Automatic annotation (TrEMBL):
Domain GFO/IDH/MocA-like oxidoreductase: 142-261
UniProt-recorded name of the protein: Gfo/Idh/MocA family oxidoreductase
Domain Gfo/Idh/MocA-like oxidoreductase N-terminal: 8-127
Residues spanning the signal sequence: none
Organism field: Achromobacter spanius
Family the entry assigns: Belongs to the Gfo/Idh/MocA family.
Keywords linked to the UniProt accession: Oxidoreductase
Domain of life: Bacteria
Family annotation (InterPro entries): Gfo/Idh/MocA-like_OxRdtase_N (IPR000683), GFO_IDH_MocA-like_dom (IPR055170), NAD(P)-bd_dom_sf (IPR036291)
Keyword Oxidoreductase part of the UniProt annotation: yes
């Protein structure tokens, strides 16, 4: 294993759209680590890792990848349905593991990963809830904890993607867990974080298909709303969309007894507002890569630092399990049209 005096030797599994971003950050933008291996069943993705990232070893077989004795840590950016088994295998192979969100599509699998991590307390297991590493959200969290808005009791948060007329996301929609698991699980984690991690007790959701009719056969929607109730009276409201015309718009509002905080209103790309014969406007962020580019780098840096210094994970697997638990209840409410009690 690496020590604090040596760079962390990292391998990445999964080189799709998000996997490439993580791989580029590991190869070029993350201090104190070196990307030495990549795993993908897709030949062109392995060739990309070798030619563009300078990765010395590539694997098509995940088990062979795990057995590489030179690897200290694994970054998983694979389909969500594989996360739990692959994370457990990585821990059992003696590797630190970073898992892209969500931890798993059901609570039982999340708990299996928790058990495997508990059996290896010497290893870091971290889930990529990237918004916790976004400077604006981190600043808001600090403000809440310092009591600047009194007692927080309501969070309203949304994740709204720009419309893709070709419906490219439909290729992975059947295995994503649905819009709330794929998009709103970030907002769920943010709400719990800002509210002090209360237990969720009940969820209700509704949704509609505004554009992508193919989602009906999957039991999914392209616009969804949810309300979650927490012990102690706190509430959260979530909105998810895949059909925004102007760009990617993620914003979060935290309301307290003495004020409120609003993060990301209007999806601004910069602080330039244009006024002309067409009206008053500003440019919007195109996608979540642009909006959270710094945060993606910050979270991998935090993971590497925890691995190299025997520190604690910046966020717990229990937080990831609760996010899945709540997102599952929201999705069940969408399917059944009734409020869902959140069981433990």
């Amino acid at each position: 294993m690496s020590t604090a005096s040596a760079p962390l030797r990292v391998g990445i599994a999964g080189l799709g759209r998000l996997g490439r971003r993580h791989a580029e950050n590991l190869a070029f933008h993350t201090p104190d680590c070196v990307l030495i291996a990549a795993c993908s069943p897709v030949e062109t993705e392995r060739a990309y890792a070798e030619a563009t990232l300078g990765v010395g070893k590539t694997y098509s077989d995940f088990n062979a990848f795990l057995q590489d004795p030179d690897l200290d840590a694994i970054v998983l950016v694979t389909p969500t349905s594989l996360h739990a088994d692959q994370a457990i295998a990585a821990l059992q192979a003696g590797k630190h593991v970073f898992i892209e969100k969500p931890l798993a599509l059901d609570v039982a699998d999340c708990l299996r990963v928790e058990a495997a991590a508990s059996a290896r307390p010497d290893l870091i297991a971290m889930v990529g809830f990237v918004r916790r590493f976004d400077p604006s959200h981190a600043h808001a969290f600090d403000s809440v904890r310092q009591g600047e808005i009194g007692r927080p009791f309501l969070v309203r948060s949304q994740t709204c993607d720009r419309l893709d007329p070709d419906g490219g996301f439909l290729a992975f929609a059947p295995t994503s867990g649905g819009i709330f698991m794929d998009c709103s699980v970030h907002d769920v984690d943010l709400a719990r974080w800002m509210l002090g991690n209360p237990k969720a007790t009940r969820a209700f959701a509704s949704g509609t298909i505004a554009v992508h009719e193919d989602l009906a056969a999957m039991g999914d929607v392209d616009n969804g709303l949810a309300i979650v109730e927490f012990e102690g009276g706190a509430r959260a409201v979530f909105y998810a969309s895949r059909t925004f015309a102007h760009g990617h718009e993620q914003h979060t509002e935290i309301i307290g007894t003495e004020g409120k905080l609003l993060i990301g209103q209007g999806a601004p790309r910069d602080h330039v507002v244009r006024s002309d014969e067409h009206g008053v406007r500003h440019q919007a962020t195109a996608d979540f890569f642009e909006r959270f580019s710094d945060a993606f780098r910050h979270e991998l840096t935090a993971f590497v630092n925890a691995c190299r210094t025997d520190g604690a994970s910046p966020l717990s697997l229990q937080d990831a399990t609760e996010a899945t638990r709540i997102a599952r209840a929201i999705t069940a409410s969408l399917h059944h049209g009734q409020p869902q009690e959140i069981q433990r």
